[in-house]
Structures are given as structure tokens and as C-alpha cells.
Structures
1.
Amino acid sequence: MTTVLLVDDQALLRSGFRLVIESEPDLRVVGEAADGRVALDQVAALAPEVVLMDIRMPGMDGIEATRRIVAAHPGSRVLVLTTFDVDDLAFAALRAGASGFLLKTARPDELVDAIRTVAAGTSVVAPRVLRRMLDLFAPHLPTGGRAPAPDGQDPRLAALTPRELDVLRLVAEGASNVEIAAELVVSEATVKTHVGNVFAKLGARDRVQAVIIAYECGLAGSAARG
């Protein structure tokens, strides 16, 4: 049974989401919150596997709430709700640690599929959509104050082998494991191993986080392409 916390300042939307989610035998809503601060308390008390998070809320918004939940409760994964598929706030939420985003206009079957996907540890955002978001918004966001390394390489990449760097670069370009295997002329199983190693070394929970780190490190995006 996958447990879900609903976070939205509109009670009517929360009720609608609850009806859809609880119509599925493997999903259960364990709580609701109307703002980010209450959501933090609910996550601490209920430990939901998935937090369905609105971005625009009074008080603490969904971006800050996501950042705090991911830092303090790694067992709870955040799926953010957005109005547009290429949205600066949606990207900021992904950068804060959300595992994906879903349009508010999504069909009920898309909602429950997204919750299951996030609960299983996979991100919910098409890699090429993420790359488009990064190209648009990453240059305008802070990098966390990291100074460039003397050799020009971000220290977060130092532990990666040359082949793992190739894999990360291709992941950041939106390539699937099958496409990476064809590009590098290796088996898909080998690619999965490399991807897992990259995630572990970067401290990334999923593809979304790995792609964002690649952009922050200058391995992808306009800087990498010259």
C-alpha cells in the first residue's frame, strides 16, 4: 500500500485528489495540508511515501516545503503540481529535490500512475522536457555559491570515471538507457550499472537530480556545448 499526503491550499482540489487516489486499491491518503508548514509536520508524523505538493501556496510555498522534506525525510518523495509543463517554479521545485511534476490538468489515470512511479523510485518528468526547462531556466538560478575548480572541473565530478562522465552527459541530453547503450556500444545492463554508480557518486536520488547536477557542473547545457 502506497501512502500519500495531499498538500494544496484549495480544499476542493484536495477532495478531488483524494477521491481519485482512494479509488485505487494500492493507494491510500494518510493526511492533508493546506500549506508548507503544516505539510512538514504531517510528513514528520505520518511518513508518507509520496507527497503530492502544490507549488503556489500562502505562507511557506511548495518549493521551500519540498527542500525541507527532502533534506529531513528522504523516505518521502515529492511530486509537485504545476500549471505549465515548462514553468520556472516547477523547475525550482525539481532543483529543490522533487522527483517529478504533474500538470494540474492531468487525467485521473495519469495522476495515479505518477504516484506509483514516484513511489517506486523513478522520476516523473520526460528527460527532454527537463532538458528544455534547464536550458531556459538554469542560467538564471544560483549554483549554490560553489567556486569553480582550478582545472575547470566541478569537484562533484572528480569521482566519476571517463565512461561514467560519458553516461552522465548522455543522461543530461535526455537519452534513455537503450539510447545510451547504442551510443556507447555496450549492453543495456552495463548502462544500468553505470547509471547506478553515477547516482551513488553524485548523491542523486534519480535521473532528475543527476541531470540538474550535470548542468550545475557545466557538463551539459550551453556552456558545455560552447
2.
Amino acid sequence: MESLRRYASFIATSNHYDVLTDTSGSRRFICVRLTGSISYSDKINHDQLYAQAMHEIKRGERYWFEGPEEAILSETNKEFQVQVPAEQLFLQFFRAAESTEKGEKLLAVEILGRLQEKKLFNLSATKIIHFGRILHKHQIPSKRTQTGTIYHVVEK
């Protein structure tokens, strides 16, 4: 067994726009929509680029994203986010309740149960686990209780 420092760098291209599948948000990705051809005519001096990056890090420059920047990335990346069927169905049949509305306070499993009653899909443990993340991503008002997290929603 060998202990190594963690390094990560990844660049990818796709001909599709629905590439992000993380239901909790995509703050670790910077997605860019290209509108033209990529020019390969300029050579990149990778050694100099690395040296500049290391110089900045050694000077104490921040190299991570913080809350406001993560929010901007998540917002920008929305067009690249895959919308799973449970998410699409929730948005079709429910919405977040306004703070002044009575609405209903339901557990994620209760919301999924109502969607299942419409015979739209089969309920599974995996869907239940991920569904709470989907509700959080859409900023559905929630509150932790002894029975679990309840979400303040209105059925359309």
C-alpha cells in the first residue's frame, strides 16, 4: 500500500448538454458551451503555467471555491444538469410552498408515494435516498423533525 497526495484535474468534451448527474449540485464542475471551433494554433507552455500556479499557491492564494462561488457555478451549470424522472415528476405535480401558504408538510417518501399513486414510476429505496437531495437542490423549504425531514409543498 502506498500513500499518495491527492491530485485531480479533468477536462472532457461531450456532444451532449445533459452530462451532470449529481443530484446535490454540480459545484465541482465548470461547464462551458462552445459556440465555435477550438483553435489549436497556440502552444501552451505547461511548465510555465504550472510554475505560475504553484507560485500563487505558495503565496497563499485561495485555490478552492467558497459558498457564493459555488452558488454561481451551480446556477451556471443548470443547463448541463440531468433531470431524473423523479425530479421531473415532482416539478410537474408539486411546487415549494410560500412561507405564508398553508401547503402540506410531507416527508420525501410521502411525496414519492403520491407520485407513485399516479402510476408514474416504481418506488425504490435508491429513489427515496436521492429524492431528498433533489428537494434540497430546488430549495424546497424543509425542517428536521423526530420523524425525519419534512418538506413544505403544494400539490398542483
3.
Amino acid sequence: METPIFIFSLPRSGSTLLQRVLMSNPQICSVSEPWILLPQIYILRKEGTLSDYSSLTAHKGNMDFINNLPNKEEDYFDSLRQFMLDLYSKQCQNNEQYFLDKTPRYYLIIDEIVKLFPKAKFIFLFRNPIHVFASIINTWGKGRFRKQYANYNDIVDGTKMLSQGYSKYMGISISIKYEDFILNPLEELDKVSNYLNIDFNKESLKLFNSQNTKGSLGDFLGPSSYSEISSNGLGKWKTTFNSKIRKKFAISLIKKIRSEDLELQGYNQKEIICEINALNSKQNSKFFMDLFDYIVGYIIRKFNLNLFFVKEFSWIKKRPLS
């Protein structure tokens, strides 16, 4: 393996589809969503993690250790780079040229990743944030607002961080709009081909469905359910925001994102709001359910109550966190 490829995107932005299309080339290896760099980078951050071994104390100890290295943080990054390259290379069991790391929450550590791998390839994948949120509601929320607390920051903060990252590293990266990729896959794939200096063809757009990402994360319902890339689903988001309360929430959400950040990704805030306003809002039969879901989601997000009520976090009730 010569160098890694990173896809920076929000969750539910089509990154699994793009990952599988790129994996159709024998020079690219990938594995589901590694997430492996997040804990390594968050060692350097005072905030962002909680643990029963005391993340705050661990941060102090880590920083004491790093600051006593001859070149401090530079030494840590040098060793971390070699460590990660070794792991990526071991995934490339057929001596592929690239390892593709596709982890949506990497938008949190774009600067550190570029510092770690300045010669890597960076693909920014953008999708209309309202379409992203509709996909979150329809998949993880099963059509309800109940999951909005978990992904609110993805939409608002994630969009901002992706734009900031792309603005800063535009000269060494490429960007792809999900909508453009769906409508003109060969044209967008040609852009990737030129950037990576490897060949893709029409067969790449047929082989994506057979790629094995060998992991439990990522979108397995989408790419696995169709044999070719189709634009049929691009308007599906409209059926999600089909009531007054849902439209109001969607508009309030898009207004929390700076118009400049949307513009950089190829979207216009006013046009998105107009599209939402134009939707049919007569489907109000679930008004009280939507209102209940919204209020509960807001309270959970405001007070981080998921730490107390989600089954996977039940262990914290028995242990103090810091």
C-alpha cells in the first residue's frame, strides 16, 4: 500500500455507495467504517470523551508523556503515522495501492488527518443536509423524529466542519456532490479516476453491489438493495417532511447552517427553504406523535439523557465518569 484515501462526509450521504464503487478497482482495499483514528486523535483533546478510567486524568497523563518526547506532538504524529500505515497495509492483503478509510465522523478530525497523511488522497462527499436528515429519519428513526437527538450535531456542526475542511484543503482534495454522482456517475467517477490516477469504467458502476466491506457498520440496506445506480430515490426526502411540524423543523434546521457553508458545497439556503415550503403539508395525522418525538428528542439532546436511558450506556449507572 502506498497511501490511504479518506472520504469526508456526513452520515447517510452515500459514502457506502461511493466506497463500494471505488472498491471495484483491484487497486483499492477498504473495510466497512474503521473509526480507528478518532480515539488516537482524541488523546490530544481535553473534551470529547468520557470513560470509567477518567478521560480527564488520561488526557493529562498522555499530554505529559507527549510533551516529554524530544519533538513533543511531532513525535507522536510520526509514530502514529507509522502505526496507522502498518495497520492499513495489513488490510491490503492483495498488495493494493490504496486503503480507503471511510468513517463519517472523521469530519471532526480533518485537520489532524491531513497533518498525519499530507500525501494521502482526500475526497469530500457532500449531500443536501435536509436530504441527509430525511434519510436519518427514514432509516435509523424508522420514519419518526425519535433519533433526531443523536444526529442533530452531524447536520449542523458536521456541515460546517466539512466546508471549513474543504475550503482549507481544496488544493489537495476533490469534492463530489451525492446528487451529481447519482445523476452522472460516469462523469463524477472520471473525476475520481484522474485524481487517484487509476482507471474506472462502466463495469465499476455494476460491480459495487458485490463488494464485501467485511464489517458491521455502513449502509447495507441501500447499496445492497439495488443493482445499478438510479436517480429514483433523489426525491424521496419530500415524503418525509410532509406535515407542518416537519416542514417547520426542517426549515429551522437549515437556517442553523451558514449560507456560506452550504454555498461552498453547492447548495443554496434560500432555494432549499423554498423547496421545503412548496411541499404538501396536509399529512398531519401524526401531528401529536411528531410533536412528542420532537420534544422528547430535544430534551434528550439538551441534557444528554441518552447517557442514562440508552441500553448500551447502562454501565455508566454503576461507575462514575470523568
